[in-house]
Amino acid sequence: MTLRTFDYDDFPIDGDHFLHLSDRLKKEYPKFCASVFAIPKIMRPRHWRALHRRDWLRVCPHGFTHRKRECRFPEIWQPRLGMLDDIASDDCWTKCFKGPWYGYSEGFVEELRQRKFSVCNKSLYGFPLPMPGDLMAWNIANVLASHYSDVQFGIDYNDEEGIRDDGLHVVSHPVYPPGSLAKRKAGQSEISNRHVEMWTRSWSPDDEWAFVSDLTQPALLKLNLGCGPDVRDDWTCLDPRAKDLDPRVIEWDFRRMIPF
Ligand SMILES: [Zn+2]
């Protein structure tokens, strides 16, 4: 069985285009569903109405205003905690949070945990440390490893989102012309026919689809993927540069299966 996911970030910038595309995909792939990561501050009633007509879309918060680092610096996120409470108590939102550019501080992650949000991360690293043990996370690389443990896979870090181009776990965005006003008026989308053709090349109408909020796992993944020779207590480090320093370091390269 092939299980696929589709994230659409930065809704409702260019929202209509995405809605048209999702309608089209739904016709061709009956089990298609998508997780729409929406920017709370710019959601309007008409956006909610459009989304609520489509039960194959689930809406999750993507930051607050989509300001870079807004979930990293306490002076920015602390004044937004009231908004986080509102989101947490509003059934329109699925409690699966994706920070802009996946940036989080440890304190903010704790605020999310207390409100029972799961957290999106893009790869096996990048979370602040240590992660609360009961925090659930959607982590694309992690999910690949757990669902396809008998399959060798590589993680392409040159790819924008760490996603492979095989359409298995798609993360898509609108295109943003320069200038913030222009951003909101973007009439053109990254979800061009070229992208759709690339993804759907491997899609079949029989494929199973899941919302990412249903695939979360405990966030305490103790693996340092060679992003530096730091060896953290109780972690496995894969960077061979640290090999001489610590027996927990194991040799590995990007094209071999991750040794969980
Ligand atoms: Zn975004």
What key phrases describe this protein's structure?
260 residues, alpha/beta, TIM Barrel, 2 domains, 8 helices, 11 strands, disordered C terminus, binds zinc ion
Q: Using the alpha-carbon principal axes, give the shape.
A: globular
**Would you tell me the structural class of the helices and strands?**
alpha/beta
What is the CATH T-level topology of the largest domain? TIM Barrel
Can you name the CATH architecture of the largest domain?
Answer: Alpha-Beta Barrel
Heterogens: zinc ion
Low-confidence segments: 143-164, 185-189, 253-260
Please provide the count of β strands: 11
Strand content: 15-25%
CATH level 1 name of the largest domain: Alpha Beta
Helix/strand order, N-terminal first: EHEHEHHEHEEHEHHEEEE
Helix count, per DSSP? 8
Major sheet summary line: 5 strands, parallel
Give the averaged pLDDT, no decimals: 75
Describe the structure.
Helices cover 25% and strands 16% of the residues. The chain has eight helices and eleven strands. The protein has two domains: 3-220, TIM Barrel; 221-260, no CATH class. 33% of the residues are buried. It has helices spanning 15-28, 45-52, 74-77, 81-88, 106-114, 140-147, 180-184, 193-200, and strands at residues 3-11, 34-38, 57-61, 96-97, 118-121, 136-139, 169-172, 208-209, 217-218, 223-224, 236-237. Helix 2 links the parallel strand 2 and strand 3 (57-61). The structure holds zinc ion (ZN). Zinc ion binds at residues 9-10, 62, 66, 100.
